[in-house]
Hints:
- Pathway: Siderophore biosynthesis; mycobactin biosynthesis.
- With 206 residues, the protein is of the alpha+beta class.
- Helix content is 29%, strand content 27%.
- The chain is globular and about 40 Å long.
- The protein starts with a helix and ends in a 7-residue tail after the last strand.
Amino acid sequence: MAxxxxxxxxxxxxxxxxxxxxxxxxxxxxTSVGSFRLTxxxxxxxxxLLSRWMNDPAVSAFWELAGPPSVTAGHVRAQLGGDGRGMPxxxxxxxxxxxxxxxxRADLDPLARHCSVLPHDMxxxxxxxxxxxxxxxxxxxxxxxxxxxxxxxxPDCMRVLAEPDLRxxxxxxxxxxxxxxxxxxxxxxxKRAALMVRDxxxxxxx
Length: 206
């Protein structure tokens, strides 16, 4: 069945009645590198940028979404048309889109079949889009900002999780610098991952 236009485009009806509140209302937040905001993806206008990022070899090595725009569109549309347990977002820094994020309920995600997940645990995936923004230590700053947003906005969430590919050493380093701890190696269907955890109880210590 075709999705209503507002849902297919990631419009205001895309998350009505879902399992996440409106992530678009979470920001902006001040960071040491500027003003950062998460904005839910609008596929109609954001697809060209997202597809270009996904075709960057440094990104496609881990996201595996290289190809025509329809490949990226299929991945994003599956989340926009889901039951609200996840939200794909653009991350803007000082008004410029420079990252892609997926904020999701980890306890309701397939991840929970492969490792110990607590009720209301939240998860994040991300990529830094422009090559010029990589290697500048932005990842750790922005990951910390997003994890803090989650913990501030979702009081039932005790942990924020991530599962970067074990081969993605820069990503793991960014999570460590953002106050996450390495919890375990996890065998997932598409990768061997490092399970990274940011604990609410330790957020002001790490």
